[in-house]
Amino acid sequence: MVTALPRLGRRRALAGAAVIAAVLALLGWWLLPFDSAPVVRGRVTLATGVPSGVYARYGDLLKDDLARDSPALDVRLTRSEGSVDNLRKLMAGEANFAIATADAVAAYLDGHGRDADRLRACARLYDDYMQLIVPKGSPVGSARDLRKLRVGVGEDGSGVQLITRRLLEAAGLDFERDITPVRVGIDQMPRLLAEGKIDAFFWSGGLPTAAVQNLALRSPIRLVQLGDLTGPLHRLGAKARYYRAAVMPVDAYPELHATHAVKTIAVANLLVTTDRTDEALAESVTRTVIRSRDRIGVEVHAAQKVDLRTAVFTDPLPLHDGARRYYLSVKP
Fold this sequence. Notes:
This protein is of the alpha/beta class. 36% of the residues lie in helices and 20% in strands. It contains 11 helices and 10 strands. It has helices at residues 7-31, 54-69, 83-91, 102-110, 159-170, 189-194, 210-218, 230-234, 279-291, 293-299, 321-329; strands spanning 42-47, 73-78, 97-101, 119-135, 150-152, 180-182, 200-205, 221-224, 244-248, 262-274. Strands 1, 2, 3, 4, 5, 6, 7, 8, 9 and 10 form a 10-stranded mixed beta sheet that branches. Helix 2 (54-69) packs across helix 9 (279-291) and helix 9 crosses helix 11 (321-329). The relative contact order is 0.17.
């Protein structure tokens, strides 16, 4: 026979059970990782860059970390010609996330590109450094000395070509008339320089860039300073506002055996998406970008510059709501 509990005892038992459940729930919450990620599923595509560039290597490593943090997420990578092409892919629906330089984003906004008002940022990543590479014995000491030379300028649709055009303008050179522009990317420019088929090439990327390192191992080359263009570049007005004076340290490329730092121009990279991206997905991807800094930085040294304190400065784009939610969750 089962004896029923007195009404008062039953109430006390229920109240006690409720307290125990609340304590267990609180304990479970407390034991969860502070920076826990939402569970996200589905397929996403990240637009990176040319195979031998820093964008592509960064994308490969980020994909591995996303697979670890969000195992139900199917991450695909798509190669591209660079920042300008990445924005096109993003707005055409060919990618959900893309890496692009701040100047390329600003140019897209200023040009009233397709659905430009829908662009959002998840994080400021690392800076790209503008690099002008010539044979070691070249007389070129400034971009102004490139007149009548064959110059690798990056592919059409690349961020390299965008900034190259502006640097040449600051140097008083016409892109089409004063040089012979060779429209190829970092996957071809080192070989063409080594074979004597071009006289110089521009590259905008993180330090170091593997393609430049590999070229230095087989051919004597050097970096040309671009610091003399800082003033003229900024006098071009609003379109140059995202460029800053920078210095490539002596050890940026040990293979060059340089004896002094090289003054140049730098521009920030952004992880870009659109307001169509689900908030939980944007939050999760942003979390992995910040968490993965040290691991990715072992292979892509530029990624060591990804920092929680600076990641929120994504001018000219507002933060995606999901990214903002992540930054608020880890704010001290």
